Here is the input.
Amino acid sequence: MRPHYFVSFLALSVTALSIASCSKPGEKAAETGEAKATAAQVTPAPVNADVLKSLTAEQQTAVRALIRDELVANPEILLEAQRAFETKQARVQNEKVAAAFKSLKSDHAQFSFGPANAKITVIEFFDYKCGFCHAAQGWVSNLMQTRKDVRVIFKELPILSENSTTAAKAAIAAHNQGKYLQMHNALMTAQGDLSPEQIFQIAATVGLNVEKLKADMDKPQVEATITGMRDQATNLNIGGTPGFVINGKLVSGFNQEELENALATAGVDVSNPPPASGPKKG
Here is the structure.
C-alpha cells in the first residue's frame, strides 16, 4: 500500500520553472523559501517529520524508496504538484488584488492616461532597469494608442538598483514640467545602465529643464510617491516587475497572450468606446 503522506516530499520539491519578470536581488531565494513553507503548511496531516520518527529505520528506508520509485516511474507528479500549488497561490493573490483594485486605481499619487471613466483600467508596476518591462513597453504603448476604452496607470516600483530609484524620481519630477510620459517612454527605451549622468542627458533630450528637474527630484513628495507605490506592491505580494493589474486581475511578468486574454475577459463592451483624453496625474 502506498503511504498517503509521501505527497509532502513532493510539495517541498516544487520550484518555479518559468520566469517573465525582474525581481530584487535575493528575492527569488526568499520567495522559494516562502513557497516551500507554505506548501508544508497546507499539506494534509499527518505529513511531517514526526511521522517518519514514529517508524522504524527499516520502515523509513522503505518509505523513502517508495517515494523515489514513484517519482522515477511518474515524474509528471512534480509538475502536477507545481501546477496545483501555483494555481492556489495565484487564486489567493488575485483575491487580494481584486479587493484592493478600487483603491489602487483611485490613488492620486499615480500617473494615468486615458479617460477616467474607461471601462478597462490597466495598472503597471515597473522598474526602468527591468528588461521585461522594456520588452512590454511596445505592448503598453500600442494599447494606449489603439484602445480608447482603456485607462493606463503607471506605478513606479524601483527594486533593482539605486539607478532604478534615481530614474523613478526623475520621471516623477518630470511631471512638474508636464513631461512625465515623454520621460517615462525615453527611460523605458534607453540602452545602458541608466546612470545619473545618462538620466539627465535623457531629460535634456526630451526638453526638460535639468536643473529644475534635479531640484524637484529632492522634494519629499517624490520620495513619498515611490514609498506609497512600493507599499502597495508589498501589500499585494507583487515582488517582481512588470506586474499588471487589469480590472482587478493580476498578470505577473510580461506574458502578452495572458495580458490579451485578461483584456478580452474584462467584461467590457467596446462597440462604443468613450473618447480619449489627455494625460493627467491621479
In short: The two ends are 62 Å apart (CA to CA). The chain has two domains: 4-96, 100-281.
